[in-house]
């Protein structure tokens, strides 16, 4: 492995900016606030218990996460400020030392496309805060990346096919040679990590870094970091166990929708496995995915919070889903419409605080 540890970051839509690529504009679905009737009596008690304290932030959240994690995760929903490009640039242009903690605070409100890639490098620990080492570190990273084999092999045809399908689906224009960048980064990762087998979702996980990070070697390091985080998490806790825990949360928190899916014979486990394992990168639009990752990279232990966000997506689309039949439900879940990410995160925050974490451990 070429790299080190992970920080994180978060959201709130900044002002529109010019970008090296452009998205097709879609209608955004807005969510309702969480209706307490979606929950059973046991969890209504949890809500009333928390509301009886002096402030909502003082309610006792799951104890599994450290205090800093919870404070940061709550704070992102209390603030509604948006951060300008100039504010980011003030931090990024520091001559001696980059204030990474300030970048994390800013990132909770969303990151402008113009600076997102550079901010991610600091939040993921790819770039060091000490700028005195910047030139030597970048040179070393580039040299190490150039030594990695990127030549075509037996998997190249599969990679190219998946890249073509992804680019057609996303409808994104760019002046950069996207197919080559995708292919080089994914091939470099698989060739550098011989124990890892290529799988199609690598393209989805790679895309946010390809579109946001300017230098190819840095996009590779970010991609490698993301894959390693997911591998470490699911090697210690298998995907089947994670899906089972999520299903318990789903049945407890949104019982009406859970029952409706059972009536329609919708296999939500299939969706949950993909959503959890690949951080919704296959289901969300690219723009929504990058917005979500702004949030996640700003907070520690973000992967532990991810099931609550998946749950909030279902709650966000509840009324729409209950009007659909089985095949239509599956189609919507597999390719989610563009979402109001602020509203979804607010819902995920409520789920996170209102429902004790040990519920997800009961199957």
Q: What features would you describe in this structure?
A:
With 363 residues, this protein is mostly helical. The chain has helices spanning 41-51, 67-78, 85-92, 100-107, 113-123, 134-147, 156-170, 178-192, 201-212, 216-236, 239-253, 255-263, 268-277, 286-296, 302-316, 318-321, 326-334, 341-354; strands at residues 21-22, 173-174. It has 18 helices and 2 strands. A two-stranded antiparallel ribbon has the order 1-2.
What's the structural blueprint in terms of helices and strands?
Layout: E1 21-22, H1 41-51, H2 67-78, H3 85-92, H4 100-107, H5 113-123, H6 134-147, H7 156-170, E2 173-174, H8 178-192, H9 201-212, H10 216-236, H11 239-253, H12 255-263, H13 268-277, H14 286-296, H15 302-316, H16 318-321, H17 326-334, H18 341-354
Antiparallel strand pairs: 1-2
Question: What are the key terms here?
Answer:
363 residues; mainly alpha; two-stranded antiparallel sheet; 18 helices; globular; disordered C terminus
Q: Please report the number of helical segments.
A: 18
Strand elements, count? 2
Mean pLDDT over all positions: 81
User: Strand order within the widest sheet?
Assistant: 1-2
Coarse morphology: globular
**Intertermini distance:** 36 Å
- What share of residues is helical? 55-70%
| Largest sheet report | 2 strands, antiparallel
Radius of gyration, taken over Cα atoms and rounded to an integer in Å: 21 Å
Return the string of H and E elements: EHHHHHHHEHHHHHHHHHHH
Which strand-content bin applies to the residues?
Answer: under 5%
Report the uncertain regions: 1-65, 73-79, 358-363
Broad structural category: mainly alpha
InterPro entries: Rab-GAP-TBC_dom, Rab-GAP_TBC_sf
GO molecular function: GTPase activator activity
Pfam families: RabGAP-TBC
Biased composition (Low complexity): 33-42, 49-60
């Amino acid at each position: 492995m070429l790299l080190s540890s992970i920080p994180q970051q978060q959201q709130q839509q900044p002002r529109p900016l010019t970008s090296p690529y452009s998205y097709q504009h879609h209608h955004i679905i807005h969510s309702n606030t969480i209706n307490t009737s979606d929950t059973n009596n046991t969890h209504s008690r949890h809500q009333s218990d928390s509301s009886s304290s002096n402030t909502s932030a003082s309610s006792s959240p799951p104890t599994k996460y450290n205090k800093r994690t919870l404070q940061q995760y709550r704070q992102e929903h209390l603030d509604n400020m948006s951060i300008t490009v100039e504010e980011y640039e003030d931090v990024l242009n520091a001559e001696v030392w980059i204030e990474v903690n300030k970048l994390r605070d800013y990132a909770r409100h969303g990151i402008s496309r113009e600076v997102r890639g550079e901010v991610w490098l600091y939040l993921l620990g790819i770039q060091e805060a000490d700028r005195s080492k910047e030139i030597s570190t970048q040179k070393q990273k580039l040299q190490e990346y150039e030594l990695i084999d990127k030549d075509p092999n037996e998997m190249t045809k599969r990679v190219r096919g998946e890249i073509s399908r992804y680019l057609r689906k996303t409808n994104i224009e760019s002046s950069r040679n996207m197919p080559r960048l995708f292919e080089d980064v994914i091939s470099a990762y698989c060739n550098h990590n011989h124990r890892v087998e290529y799988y199609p979702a690598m393209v989805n996980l790679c895309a946010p870094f390809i579109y946001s990070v300017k230098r190819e070697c840095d996009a590779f390091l970010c991609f490698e970091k993301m894959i390693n985080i997911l591998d470490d998490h699911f090697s210690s806790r298998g995907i089947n166990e994670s899906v089972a825990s999520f299903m318990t949360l789903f049945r407890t928190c949104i019982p009406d929708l859970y029952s409706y899916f059972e009536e329609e014979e919708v296999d939500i486990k299939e969706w949950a496995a993909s959503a959890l394992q690949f951080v919704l990168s296959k289901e969300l639009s690219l723009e929504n995915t990058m917005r979500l990752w702004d949030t996640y990279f700003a907070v520690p232990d973000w992967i532990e919070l991810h099931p609550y966000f998946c749950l909030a997506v279902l709650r966000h689309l509840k009324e729409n889903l209950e009007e659909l039949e089985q095949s239509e439900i599956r189609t919507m879940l597999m390719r989610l419409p563009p979402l109001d990410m602020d509203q979804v995160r607010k819902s995920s925050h409520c789920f996170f605080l209102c429902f004790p974490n040990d519920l997800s451990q009961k199957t």
